[in-house]
C-alpha cells in the first residue's frame, strides 16, 4: 500500500532509504555482488590514477558501475522468480538465464573497454 503523503522531498528520502535497503540486501545475500563490489573497489584507483584522458577515465569508471547495476537487476529477477515458486518452469529458467547473460555482457563490456584503454596506453 502506498503512503498518502509520498511526494516532494519526502518521497526522495523514502526512495533513498529503499535503495539503501536494497544495497544492504544485495551485499548480505548475493556473493556475486560482493565479489563485483570488491573488484570495482580494487579497479577504481587504477582508473583514477592512470595517465589517460578524462573521457577514458569516465569510461573505465562507468563500466564498473554498469556491472554493479546489471548484477543488482539480475539479483532482483532471481529473487522474484524464486518467490513465485521452487518448482522448475521453463520460463523461470529462461528469465534467470537471460538476466545472467546480461551480467556476462556487462562484464565483457568492462573487460573490453579496460583492455582497449589501458592496453593502448601501457602495452
Task: Write structural notes for this entry.
The protein is mainly alpha-helical and 123 residues long. It has a single domain (30-122), classed as Helix Hairpins, CATH 1.10.287.3610. It has helices at 8-29, 31-49, 54-84, 90-122. Helix 2 packs antiparallel against helix 3 and helix 3 (54-84) packs antiparallel against helix 4. The model has no long low-confidence stretch (mean pLDDT 94).
Which descriptors would you attach to this protein?
4 helices; mainly alpha; flat; Helix Hairpins; 123 residues
Radius of gyration: 18 Å
CATH arch. level architecture: Orthogonal Bundle
What is the average of the pLDDT values? 94
Work out the helicity level: over 70%
Return residue spans where pLDDT drops below 50 for at least 5 consecutive residues. none
Structural class designation: mainly alpha
Shape: flat
Give me the count of strands: 0
How many separate domains make up the residues?
1
- Helix tally equals 4
CATH class: Mainly Alpha
**Beta content:** under 5%
Largest sheet: none
H/E topology pattern: HHHH
The N- to C-terminal Cα distance equals 57 Å
- Remind me, CATH topology? Helix Hairpins
Family: Belongs to the bacterial diacylglycerol kinase family.
GO molecular function, one term: metal ion binding
Transmembrane segments: 58-77, 98-120
EC number: 2.7.1.107
